[in-house]
Design a protein that fits this description.
The two termini are about 35 Å apart. The protein has a single domain, classed as Alpha/Beta hydrolase fold, catalytic domain (Rossmann fold). The protein has about 280 residues and is α/β, with parallel strands linked by helices. Strand 7, helix 8 and strand 8 form a beta-alpha-beta unit. The radius of gyration is 18 Å and the shape is globular. It is about 40% helix and about 15% strand.
Length: about 280
């Protein structure tokens, strides 16, 4: 279904019929991804929740406007809020975000902590504190924009997936790699370029000093073989009031793709804890 926000359409996939008696989980994919990425995981998660799979702006079936304002942090937060309000109404939601989607989910949670009852961040960061490092990262992302503007989507995705961060996915069969890339090829060039300009880790406001404003228990997930984000998460877990960091063995950056069963077990345990807390009230 499509949700309209400020004249743009955001696509939300709802795999199973909504049940108003159930808590709702909004899942947000990473850069170059889409709502469809979550479907294999959803089949392994508990049935006593609603699952809403959001295509971030510029991705999947959501609009990819030319105006850069739609891709900034504040705008993305309000887009998530529109999806929440128009589908879930006044109920609190559980957010699950992967990588860039994790940064979006965390940004929403910091601005609207009263709107959430759960937060799962997979291979995500809280931004970059150091100004020099932030500027360097933004310059790197602008180089990606330049590359994308002068190459085909297929060439860009091949280049993006060839990064060291995704080396662990080379163990997949050639057919699986082709299927995964084929989905990414359908993204919009202008959408990806604009989200790199507007929601780069190098331009997103760092959130480290605001993590304690999130009142609920937070779950952080990273892959054992993704040493960069496992280190990042081992640091930021201390910044929340209540948080746990789970490391998925034999996995790189994308744990729900590389080790879906173990990732589903970790998330299921967390969701069941939330359900038990609600039942005890």
């Amino acid at each position: 279904m499509y949700i309209e926000h400020s004249g743009i359409k955001l696509n939300v996939e709802i795999p199973k019929e909504l049940d108003k008696r159930k808590d709702s989980v909004i899942l947000i994919h990473g850069f170059t991804g889409c709502a469809e990425d979550w479907l294999p995981l959803i089949d392994m998660l508990p049935e006593n929740f609603n699952y809403l799979l959001l295509d971030l702006i510029g991705h999947g079936k959501s609009d990819h406007p030319v105006l850069p304002e739609f891709y900034k942090t504040d705008s993305i937060i309000e887009q998530i809020k529109s999806v929440k309000e128009k589908i879930v109404k006044d109920s609190k939601v559980i957010l699950i975000g992967y990588s860039m989607g994790g940064r979006a989910a965390l940004s929403f949670a910091v601005k609207y902590p009263e709107e959430i009852k759960g937060l799962v961040l997979e291979s995500a960061s809280a931004g970059i504190k150091n100004d020099t490092e932030r500027n360097k990262r933004y310059e790197e992302d602008l180089k990606l924009v330049e590359f994308l503007s002068s190459h085909s989507m297929e060439e860009f995705i091949d280049f993006w997936q060839d990064q060291e961060m995704f080396n662990t996915q080379r163990r997949f069969s050639n057919d699986k790699i082709k299927r995964l890339k084929k989905i990414k090829y359908t993204n919009s060039k202008i959408g990806l370029m604009n989200i790199l300009r507007g929601f780069s880790t190098g331009i997103m406001p760092p959130l480290h000093d605001k993590l304690k404003t999130i009142p609920i228990k937070v779950l952080l997930i990273s892959g054992e073989l993704d040493t960069k984000y496992t280190f990042i998460n081992s640091k930021i877990v201390r910044g929340f009031r209540k948080a746990k960091h789970k490391v998925v063995k034999n996995s790189g950056h994308n744990t729900h793709l590389e080790e879906p069963k173990r990732t589903a077990e970790i998330i299921t345990n967390y969701l069941n804890q939330i359900a038990n807390i609600e039942n005890q009230k």
